[in-house]
């Protein structure tokens, strides 16, 4: 079942209302810079809490349907001023990205596959009828922001500067329609490793009475609205001691994602072969950069089968009973991988294997290997085209 949506470009959609040819696109070289007079104190690495402290500056790019994109502005991090009638507040027209900047041993700033984040933001904008933009130019403006706030990029391995590009509809109107005004802004915050003291495997609650995404919905776009409705389900399972929801979908209880991460299983398939499995990009799965990287690495290694296909809870339980299930983990930029140790499903807790050769271990061997390899690439220790050095 593959849901390939013939997505019209926004230019096609809007071609009747405006001639986009005259509209300006983002031009990084036109970026204006207004430096903050106040240099904030950067917390010590050990005191970093995800998403709480923001660097001195932000990037702000405004769009309107008459002129297109204005010159990008780098300015002090601060509040936005928007009309209370702005579309974003009423109909949730917002999408975002999550990416990181890393400092390598020689002090260079590195990004990990940033083109994928720009492509995904572009597609999320298309889905919300937000304006399209030049992806390379937006990335160049973000790189300028990183160079200006370079001191905020921690140099210790495992630490990084989290980058949050965000697009919103800002038209002053309660009408439900494509917005005549929009904004892309980018804020950054220093973050520590997801696992400060080694891996901590998580316990999941398989959830089917709430649904994260559905065919024809927005599950494959990085949209704030997808997150808003996941907060209450997460709180509910937390009351029963589970860290996250394992989102199921459909009459067969298909596994889709875990919390806000993609999902992987490593098992011995019915033909007796070791196989890495993840659900396919059928429209309900967010196309993660980490997901794609893991699939790519595994296919390059060529040591086991790699397949994108639907997996159901009954299949997982059968594999467990037959001792064919080897490892399960979530994958996303924040943690790279998140090992899974338990799944609560229909009143029963199923223990998921971690590393059978080490009873104290909190992650399977393959899970760890993906984490080590990707982190090695991100910090420039393993030379790879995915790691892009930001030029001064
Ligand atoms: C962001 C996100 C992911 C992970 O994507 P990465 O690009 O690997 O960070 C997975 N699932 C959901 C729902 C997400 O929003």
Describe the protein.
With 392 residues, the chain is an alpha+beta fold. It has 2 domains: 10-191, D-amino Acid Aminotransferase, Chain A, domain 1 (2-Layer Sandwich), CATH 3.30.470; 202-378, D-amino Acid Aminotransferase, subunit A, domain 2 (D-amino Acid Aminotransferase, Chain A, domain 2, Alpha-Beta Barrel). The protein is built from 9 helices and 19 strands. Strands 1, 2, 3, 4, 5, 6, 7, 8, 9 and 19 form a 10-stranded mixed beta sheet that branches. Strands 10-11-12-13-16-17 form a 6-stranded mixed β-barrel, surrounded by 4 helices. The radius of gyration is 22 Å and the shape is globular. The model has no long low-confidence stretch (mean pLDDT 95). The structure holds pyridoxal-5'-phosphate. Residues 98, 222, 257, 260-262, 286, 288-291, 332-333 line the site of pyridoxal-5'-phosphate.
Radius of gyration from the alpha-carbon trace, in angstroms: 22 Å
Major sheet attributes:
10 strands, mixed
Low-confidence blocks of residues: none
Look at the structure and give the CATH class of the largest domain.
Alpha Beta
Q: Helix and strand string, N-terminal first?
A: HEEEEHEEEHHEEEHHEEEEHEHEEEHE
* Helix count, DSSP H or I runs of 4 or more residues: 9
Strand content: 25-35%
Provide the residue-averaged pLDDT.
95
Instruction: Give the distance, in angstroms, between the N- and C-terminal Cα atoms.
Output: 46 Å
Which architecture of the largest domain does the CATH hierarchy give at level 2?
Answer: 2-Layer Sandwich
Total strand count, please?
Answer: 19
Identify the CATH homologous superfamily of the largest domain: Aminotransferase class 4, branched-chain amino acid transferase, N-terminal domain
Q: What share of residues is helical?
A: 10-25%
Q: Please tell me what the overall shape is.
A: globular
Bound molecules: pyridoxal-5'-phosphate
The CATH topology name of the largest domain reads: D-amino Acid Aminotransferase, Chain A, domain 1
Find the structural class using helix and strand composition: alpha+beta
EC number: 2.6.1.42
GO cellular component, one term: mitochondrion
Modified residues (N6-(pyridoxal phosphate)lysine): 222
Pfam families: Aminotran_4 (PF01063)
């Amino acid at each position: 079942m593959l849901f390939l949506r013939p997505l019209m470009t926004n230019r096609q959609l809007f071609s009747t209302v405006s001639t986009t040819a005259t509209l300006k696109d983002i031009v990084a070289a036109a970026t204006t810079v207004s430096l903050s007079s106040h240099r904030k104190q950067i917390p010590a690495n050990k005191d970093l809490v995800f998403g709480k402290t923001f660097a001195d500056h932000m990037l702000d790019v405004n769009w309107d349907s008459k002129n297109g994109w204005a010159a990008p502005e780098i300015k002090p991090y601060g509040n936005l001023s928007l009309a209370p009638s702005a579309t974003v507040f009423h109909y949730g027209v917002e999408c975002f990205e999550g990416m990181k900047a890393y400092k390598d041993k020689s002090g260079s700033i590195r990004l990990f596959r940033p083109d994928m984040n720009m492509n995904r933001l572009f597609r999320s904008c298309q889905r919300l009828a937000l304006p399209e933009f030049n992806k390379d130019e937006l990335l160049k403006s973000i790189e300028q922001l990183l160079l200006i706030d370079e001191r905020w990029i921690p140099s210790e391995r495992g630490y990084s500067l989290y980058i949050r590009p965000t697009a919103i509809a800002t038209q002053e109107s309660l009408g439900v329609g494509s917005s005549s005004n929009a904004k892309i802004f980018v804020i950054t915050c220093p973050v520590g490793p997801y696992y400060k003291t080694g891996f901590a495997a998580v316990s999941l609650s398989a959830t089917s009475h709430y649904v994260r995404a559905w065919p024809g919905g927005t599950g494959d776009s990085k949209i704030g609205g997808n997150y808003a409705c996941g907060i209450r389900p997460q709180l509910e399972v937390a009351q029963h001691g589970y860290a996250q929801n394992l989102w199921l979908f459909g009459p067969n209880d298909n596994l889709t994602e875990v919390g806000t991460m993609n999902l992987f299983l490593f098992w011995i398939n019915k033909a007796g072969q070791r196989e890495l499995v993840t659900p396919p990009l059928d429209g309900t799965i967010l196309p993660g950069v980490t997901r794609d990287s893991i699939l790519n690495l595994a296919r390059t290694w060529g040591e086991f089968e790699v397949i994108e296909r639907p997996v159901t809870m009954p299949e997982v339980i059968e594999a467990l009973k037959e001792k064919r299930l080897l490892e399960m983990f979530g994958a996303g930029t924040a943690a790279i991988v998140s090992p899974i140790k338990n799944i609560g499903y229909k009143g029963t807790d199923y223990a998921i294997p971690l590393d059978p050769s080490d009873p104290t271990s909190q992650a399977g061997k393959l899970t760890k290997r993906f984490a080590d390899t990707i982190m090695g690439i991100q910090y420039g220790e393993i030379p790879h085209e995915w790691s892009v050095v930001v030029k001064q």
